[in-house]
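User: Could you go from structure to sequence for me? I need the amino acid at each position, not a summary. Structure tokens:
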């Protein structure tokens, strides 16, 4: 999609595959990048308020965002991501749980007329109960078709 194809309020969800994190994956990544007990130590995590290992927020957002990128919907027009507009970790991301990902276009602004513009993509992920666990809005630089 190109800049002129995006509409504020447009939603992509059916196109995006669900995401499941494994406990092993969470622990492996966390040991390297976010070695807090709630991410790497099963015993201590079980004694925490979460009761089990949880995924680091930044890692969870990266994986969930990857589900959007793999659709290829924005491949033709995206130049690069240029900002994280907002990021909220609302509920823990758990292992062996299926998360639904949705991306909504929440803003767009022409930057260089006829050349490129800024598009804000709001990604939300929901657990099986339908509760939003994370919200992440990224701004992309997107080219025009012509």
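Assistant: Here is the amino acid at each position, in order:
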């Amino acid at each position: 999609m190109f800049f002129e194809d995006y509409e504020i309020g447009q939603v992509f969800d059916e196109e995006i595959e669900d995401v499941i994190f494994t406990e092993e994956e969470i622990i492996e990544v966390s040991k390297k990048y976010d070695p807090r007990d709630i991410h790497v130590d099963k015993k201590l995590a079980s004694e925490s308020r979460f009761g089990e290992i949880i995924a680091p927020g930044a890692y969870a957002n990266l994986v969930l965002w990857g589900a959007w990128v793999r659709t290829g919907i924005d491949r033709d027009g995206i130049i690069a991501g240029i900002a994280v507009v907002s990021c909220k970790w609302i509920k823990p991301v758990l292992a062996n749980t299926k998360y639904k990902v949705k991306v909504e276009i929440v803003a767009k602004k022409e930057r260089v007329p006829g050349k490129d513009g800024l598009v804000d993509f709001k990604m939300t992920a929901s657990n099986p109960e339908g509760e939003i666990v994370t919200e992440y809005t990224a701004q992309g630089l997107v080219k025009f078709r012509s």
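One structural detail worth keeping in mind: The longest helix spans residues 57-69.
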